[in-house]
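Example record

The entry below shows one chain as it appears in the dataset: sequence first, then structure tokens.
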Amino acid sequence: MFENPAGNRSMIRLRGFTHFYTNGFMKTIVLRGISLDVDEGEFLTVMGPSGAGKSTLLHLLGMLDAASEGLYFFDDIPVHDLPEKQRTRLHQQNIGFVFQSYHLIDDLTVYENLETPLLYQKVNAAERKSLVADMLDRFGIFAKKDLFPAQLSGGQQQLVAVARAMIIRPRLLLADEPTGNLNSEQGEEIMRLFRELNRAGTTIIQVTHSEKIAGYSRRIVHLRDGWIAGYQQAACG
């Protein structure tokens, strides 16, 4: 097992984490009383069948919404008590997110999509230019920098989405099926980059259906019907 770079200090603590949707008199529970600790520097995979609550859990961990019930502590900050504006700021400062459906901004070029999170962090122009150029080169998409998302293939959009999440050097990287639209060679390259980031101290939580991709992590959490059904030590752990 790789040594935890932060000495097993908890970054995330969930207690009784529950989420549901209501439609008239109907109540659909997606997550049911989840309690989970994630250490700083951990590489965690969430697995489970469709409808288990995997993407919802990732969405809530990314502070894109608030859970219906329960406690969420990020670095001992009670996220569950934060107003939306403060929650968004905490997300922007600490979290990179790779969405299953890319979430690129349609009317911005590849270059501008990569630059956007740096603008939120008020990175100066010279450093922005250098960071974007580095990502374009690292992901082999420099020739695509002036294209818009609609002009890219699904795999190319996924590469841009991963590059955008990584460009801010996030403390926590959340990835929903990060290799789902990539060929096997591209997928393995992304996972090697994830592993490098993790070894350098970035905490990573990914959702995947692939046992092979899960094998890059250290621990696997299995979800079923909104519950944690069990844990598993991953291949590299």
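Notes for this example: The CA atoms of residues 194 and 204 lie 8 Å apart. Helices lie at 54-61, 84-94, 110-120, 125-138, 154-166, 184-199, 211-214.
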